[in-house]
Records
---
Amino acid sequence: MKNSSFSVIVPTFNVQDYVVKALDSVFVQDYENFEVIVVDDASTDSTAQKIEEFIEHSQKSDSERIKFIKCEVNGGLSTAREEGLKYAKNEWILFLDSDDWYNEGLFRKLNKVIQNNPDINIIEFNFDFIDEYTRNKRIAYGNRGVSGIRKSAEENIMTALAVWNKCFKKSFLDNLNLPPIPRTVLDDAPFSICALLTAKYFYWLNFIGYGYIERNNSLSKQLSMYSRVFSSIAFIEKELKRLNSYDEIQFKVISLNLMSSNLRRHNDSLEYKNFYDECKKMFRSFDLKKEIKTPMIYNYRFYKRVLLYPYWLFKLRIKISNSERFFRKKIKNFILSRGSK
């Protein structure tokens, strides 16, 4: 049986210190049938030069599988991904963020799933979170312990927010025909949520195939995230209705996840306070006590705190929680450093 073919889309912007490791992680795979489409989103550092040097010093068989596209104007992450999709020729699509990497064996594992399940549209896989500075690592879903076909997005709703831990069937994405993702919405969540809720069924691969770096200056930690959350919710609702995939309860759960995950990124800005107030208004319109069917206890507790706590108490709880995590990291690093001596 013919092996599946993969197109790996790598959007880059000012990642001169990371991009070579990302590209290396594709070419060390024990698999041959893939192409790499690198889209540089008008970087102002030496990212483009690093990519060109990587191509130049690669073996001919590897360099011939790389297509390098340079954008003259910075359009944002989603725009770069969409540009890469235009050039993708293979059956399955992966998106690799240029400061992350694939773990060895991922393509072979994906191919095995595809050969045994020819009708699936999306494969999700597990990943590691790595803190850029402490180098602490944790498995994202280490206690899941399940592989196989998933017929309900509610079962996997907590993994729905990322694009990079998924492998998409290209014909499915073509039929999905999502409009361009505007810069006013989040880059990952609208795309992946609309895809997951439209797919007839998908597959969860319990394999740690991806290394995700948490960087303090990453887009996900910028203040502009707050203003993009509600635009994302509106985009998702509109597209799910267009695709006849809208379910009110699922949509509420998704909205709760998007708001809760960003409420945890507290800072003392007026923008955060306004975001909190808007979340509280939306939470009041939810009646989730009997409606939540997915195991998302932490976010449900968060939802209740927003409703019940005054702002000063809610803010204090977040600060205490963040401080506890900080000191736990410090203690863990101290113990590890002592043990290595």
---
Amino acid sequence: MGAMSTAAAHGVVIGTMTDEKINSNLPNAKAEAAPRNLTGDRDAGQTPLLPALACLKTAYSHILGYSVAGEETVIQAPELNVVFDIGKCPRPVLTSDFCLLTHGHMDHAAGLPYYLSQRFFQGMCPGTVICPRPIADAVAAMIDAFGRLEGKAIAHRLIPLSSGEEFELRKGLVVRAFPTFHTVESLGYTLIDRREKLKPELAAQQLPGHVLRDMKARGEKITYTLDIPIMAYTGDTAMAETLAHPDVREARVLLTECTFFEASHRRRASVGRHLHLNDFLQALPSLQNELVVITHVSRRTYVPWARRTLERAAAGMAFTPKIEFLMEHTQKLQVVAGSAAAFNPAPLPEPAEINEAEA
């Protein structure tokens, strides 16, 4: 089913902007040509010191991680005790008990055995891995293979999910899977704050507590369930219906890929089943999120240029949520060739001085 017809089935109009209209909003080559790569046109002698993690604070959790297409994606919400995908498993994400794996591509899943093994090594409880049901056997086989290499079983819990299925992370916090559309089996995940609320008609009566307790004891239903989607993570996905899904467009915070931004990269996006800027712009008017965090930008793209391009293209829209690019929130550590700090170790004492000190 096409993106527009699927969105209509959800009662959502994704947008009426044609490619021509969108492209007319994009800056032309004379206005601002796309830089060559992730670091822009920076001098070749100036390179990142480390692949620094990004850190972004939201009202619900910090977002800590690293996400560059084809290289590594790992995004942690530490206060919510989850890490979305695992990348190469940077050390901070070991603290999350739940790993929500969207698909099996190496840049999203390579660190999984290390995550589980290190948690055991450091005396933590076994990690729980939630993954798409069709890849569960392969994930289990990978963990088993590394266990045989280590000479011991790797303690873990594996929870396969299908689209629409849920798993309770803790009381009041549920993860629910939604469909995504990538080159391999994949799922996205929404974290849901689930609350039991007193029915409005009972609340209006202002009944005393003992009356409500008696009603409950008699088996009467006095509450209803209120689900508040607080954070959604798409992983890798083409447009299809992903951004039109209610759990995605209504989440307080949306973490979504948008891999390609240049007009010449439309085919790359189609072949790799990733989002292009044009796809994102079509969905943008329907998003109800407080904050959208863009992840998984291609290394071919300079992120500040991508942000400026998006801002220009969305300038005429009546309403858009606040948008941040994850990788604009990294540490700003750099090393410039030839200007490293001198290494001047203290001179070793002479043997005679050592003997005198021992004496």
---
Amino acid sequence: MRSPRAAQRAAVVVLLGAGALAGACAPEESASPRLVPGRKAADADSGVTVETDAGDDAPAGPSCSNGVRDGDETDTDCGGATCPACANGRACAASRDCVSRVCADAKCTNDAGCADGTREGFASATTFPNIAACAGGWSVPGLGTTTTPACGRAAGNDSANPTGQGCNVADLCQVGWHVCETPAIVAAKSGGEGCAVSGIADQSAFFAVRQAGSGGAMCGPGSNDLFGCGDVGEPPDPGTCAPLDRFSNDLCASLPATWACGADGENELGNVTKTASEGGGVLCCRD
């Protein structure tokens, strides 16, 4: 016969064992309810329906990175309303489908040279594949150092922003193009011809490059005056500026009223803005 003390110890052991088994079998209070992949589940506390993670049995939807042309893509994983814009040579339906913002013959291209897809000088991209005269305005001052686009190239006289609010001169050139820098570069990009073959006539327009000078209508170091091609403006010094054929004169006095060069007569290059699409723009050269 067991003593009362031994019986008491046995009862404690039995109770502890039962508690351990119950703990092992009971669910954790903090555990989340199991969700079925690809289904909707209601939150027990809030009653709000939430999406669960899609599983292998859930159908895959359109994606911009699945290597398949689906959704409203115009080419594989690009174009349309939600996917990134397409590179040159890829299929497109509208300008928004292209990094270059130009869709021609259902293909993205940057042959226009101008961000809005239209040229106002050196009009034939076949004859002049490396230079274009691009009209439009810009509100961010300067020609010399504004080399990075400020408004995503959403500028140009045929764009939705013809006065170029929030844009600089770089925004007038298409992806893969830039504002031409010097007379020598204009000569090279135009096949040695320069302004003489630009076809800018009867436009009352001036198309600037990044070239300036120290004064006296001469091209060279400095930030005085603007130089380029056009049918308005004064003739520059031919010895230093050829093949460019026009310059701005002091404070852009010889250019259309759409040009504004500030109040410093020795820094037109740094202060110039253009308040409307009329009156020209810049020359753009292929990178």
---
Amino acid sequence: MQFHEHPHEHPHHHPHQYVIDRRSALRLGGLGLGGLLLAACTPTRSAMSTSIADSIASSSTLAPASTTASSLLATTTTSQAEHATTTSTIATLNTLPGFDEFASTVKVFASGDYWQIESNGLPAHNMMVGITSWQQQVPLAMTYQGSNAWQLPKRPALADNPVSAKTSLYRGAIALAVNGVPIFNALNNRGDDAFLVGELDKWGGHCGRADDYHYHVAPLHLSTIVGTAKPIAYALDGFAIYGSTEPDGSTMKKLDEYNGHIGTDGVYHYHGTTTYPYINGGMRGVIRGVVGDQVDPQPSTKPIREAGAPLQGATITNFSSPKTGQYALEYSQSGKTGLVEYTVSDTSVAFTFTSPTGAVTTEKYTR
């Protein structure tokens, strides 16, 4: 079995011991199967309707897990509708609402027919806590700026041939949250629901093999910051992604298979939901292309170290930043505590690993 070696992907390289249908197993076992990661190599294509049972935590300042208590989001049933028939509809964006709430860390400016969005890819809320299937990656700031910035069409248009995230786009991002954090396909690079198999934290994210933090489900917690009238994210085709209600606060209307519909303003938009596909279910709008199973172009990430290996039986229990540039991740394994501490400078990242057995190792990498 071969795995993609693209820096946006995740190091989910697990031996597959079973040949049962993964979707059926997930439906039967629910979240209890999260840590097993027994997916088949060839992704199955059927859609999922399992509701998120865990909480997606509200946004908060980076701090120890004990200070980031979250409230449960009400489960929203995703309705499926036929595709919008008016494929000639064109949305003209004069601004990009939502990003303005994060202006101190996310920069948006116009460049020709596109909006350029710059960020370091790290959210203000805590990260990693709650992951039960961990590949030993940790959050590092990315350089999404200049020629490596995110690009969104100013005038998104519905495509005659949309691209489904059920059968493709398993690599790279498919959307960008308004806090500057990329959003990947709800299905990981094996075709499994990343949430259901325990790979995501309480905020719906985790780190890829470049130590790049990103979401795999809708960051619905951002609605508490931007409000219902503003998007929580934008798909890479340029169409806005709103939370669990319509922009006017009314009940969410019927959605098509891409998790979107035409709004009362005549413009197509997506919604974040608590059931699959959680976020935009593909590219309903026109994109410039798909290269290597990802939307192209988009920013790249550069790993500073080899991708981590799965740490069986580990659960991340705490993540904190004691000082600027210093981070600590705690995890539990076999009833004992392990620790990853790292210090980030402009030129290097220094790690200290303390295993649950007490063994200490150090590593240092140039950025």
